[in-house]
Amino acid sequence: MTTIATTFSRHIRMPRPAYRTFSMPNHVKQFRYFIEHSDWDDKILAYEARVNKICVGIIIASVLFFVPTLVKVCLR
To answer: What is the rounded distance in angstroms from the CA atom of residue 74 to the CA atom of residue 66?
Structure first.
């Protein structure tokens, strides 16, 4: 794809002030197609209870990880 554009004043008098732009990579197009045309959001809702348990587990793990640091900061 070639886009014609004038970006700086020194390019105005040039006969062909064009630069080449690149199209999206194929994997981005495939991911976009998947998001637009599949029922991924319904599948996530079907596993909502499991996802919620995983999120709670991640929160608990992060709290346990940061408690020693928080205690040291509060005892200073």
So the answer is: 12
